[in-house]
Amino acid sequence: MLTLFLTIVGFLFTAVSGGITVFTFIESRQHKMSEKPMIYSGIAFLILLVVSVIIVIGSSFLSTAYVSRTPLNERPLPLATLTAPTASPQPDLTATVTQAYSLYAQSTSGAPLIKAPLTSQAPGPWGKDIGPDSSCRFTPQDYRIATLHQGFQICFAEGTTLTDFTFQVQLTIIRGDRGGMVFRITPSQNSVDAYYFEITAAGEYRLFWVRSNVAYPLASDTSPLLKSGLNQPNLLTAIVRGSTIILFINKQYVITVRDTTYHSGLIGLIAHSTMQQATEIAFSNAEVWTAS
Description:
This protein is 24% helix and 40% strand. A hairpin with a 4-residue loop joins strand 5 and strand 6.
């Protein structure tokens, strides 16, 4: 995107430098006016065009996708807590398994705000964004997010600023490393702030809060609930209520975490490669329910 912008600016600069003669010629032959008004008018037009391009590129960037050529800079958990996460803030143990399942049934029983099969025939609020090294695109069967190199690609659901909600989606790792869902996102052109719930092909799950592309772990573990390996579908669910985040994998309760960092934002889907290899994730059947 930056390369495209610089190319356009370079072209317009050349047009300004070489176009003065053209403007002067037209003025002298047709209008018999002084040279300066026509020259300045042409320059003003080109400046306006540059500003318009910046606005269009910027709004497209913020509403459709965010791509980084480097992976999230993960702050590691202490070695002793990798199998029983106690990262600050600690998991909320007051939410019992019974309460979690009851909330899951209640949260997913009504009519969803978003019900998107994520196919080319029924895309929902997600958009297409195809670049040279990463993409968000539809197939007849699913929604594919890919990054060809180390880094990550987030594809936003447009117009989905949410506070309390339940977000559920099925994902399949087609190749590469890891992927998942992102929520309460505040994007910018240089970084992302959000919560990030991911699974890996090795059978691990992780929940992070992310600030300026630095990921701080809230929970991390292996889980027998996950279908590990490639081409294995897994259903991820995040129930978000205030500072409480409750995670499910394949409709089975995983963990409850409390964190007060972010309160609302966009939702999105992500493909993430921490190694020098391509990662491609297939998403389908995205659903979002808002809290009543």
